[in-house]
Amino acid sequence: MSEIWCLKGELTLERAEALEALLEVMGEERGAFPPTLSYFEQPGQPLWMVEIFFAEKPDDRFVPELLERADLTNWQHDFAAVENKDWVSESQKLLSPVEAGRFFVFGAHDKDKARREGINLQVDAGQAFGTGKHETTAACLEVIDSLANEITPHKILDLGTGSGVLALGAHKVWANAHVVASDIDPIAIVVADENIEINAGVSRKPGENKAGIATVVAAGLDDPAFKGDSPFDLIVANILAGPLIDLSADITDALAAGGTLVLSGLLVTQKKEVLDAYKARGLVTLGRVEKGEWLALTLRKP
Fold first, then answer.
1. Beta bridge pairs of residue 300
2. Fold of 5-85
3. S-S: 264 plus which of 51, 64, 120, 238, CB 3.0-4.6 Å?
4. How far apart are CA 156 and CA 149, in angstroms?
5. What pLDDT score does 95 carry?
6. Per-domain boundaries in the chain
7. Can you say how many angstroms the Cα of residue 241 is from the centroid of all Cα atoms in its chain?
């Protein structure tokens, strides 16, 4: 079992948010999931407690580079091995429920806060990513909600599903659609399946001609598992800017003519680079939703 390491210290909220964004960028640069960061307010204190959890001890260059790029070389912090437990779930307990359009997303610890109206989603991350708490996931849910009265997609793909929250959101809005939730990480698919069951989502097999959500472990859109479901009328890809650009040809090919594409997982500063990749393939932009430094873009294939 890998040894969990934790980098811990106090920062202003603004610096904590900037550090979170930098971790995403550094994870993208390395082609790996970023470590899990949580930050929470301390009653009566001006600074927030920040904790960054690593699934194993990072290489000796990572933390010094992180602190240098964040201009935190003089930051008073602790960095040490800690008890090995599911820190993603633990950090999730520090987060409050999130509203995004009609969606209300909460963890099991907040089950009593479910709303009478709107769409409730109980999403527990387990060892996966994408709980509905992160700005990019919330932005995608807002876009899905805004599209509810504009389109009626028959086939939907949630690319990089994480905990399955966006696939579930799409299923709740378009109950008759054939939804595919895919991820490169097998653990994410196990968690997504659990969340589909928790939220009474209807499971289906890939390519099966019925409404519901099929889950797929796949490294790319050329995987045979997509064959029976593509092309898609709606694709939601909440990954990172680098993969969005690298996969622009495959994503465009998997999108049906007239289909809608939602891209997220990118910083506002990365908008032009990502948009250029898709405009070059003939897609047109329809709008954007900003959440802090993060962005969700909506496009359409003519």
1. 260, 284
2. Alpha-Beta Plaits (3.30.70)
3. 238
4. 16
5. 55
6. 5-85, 128-300
7. 12
pLDDT score for 96: 67
5-85 and 128-300 agree in CATH topology: no
pLDDT means over runs of 10, the chain (302 residues): 79 92 89 79 86 85 94 94 56 64 85 85 62 74 95 97 93 96 90 90 90 93 90 95 92 97 91 95 95 91 96
- Burial tier of 192 (Cβ tally within 10 Å: 0-12, 13-18, 19+): buried
Bridge pairing between strands 255-267 and 212-217: unpaired
CA gap 158, 23 in Å, rounded = 23
C-alpha pair distances (Å), 52 with each of 7, 49, 187, 193: 5, 10, 21, 27
Which residues touch 148 (CB under 8 Å, ≥6 apart)?
Answer: 102, 173, 174
Angle at 214 between CA 210 and CA 217, to 5 degrees: 155
Which residue do the tokens 């409730």 mark?
Answer: 120
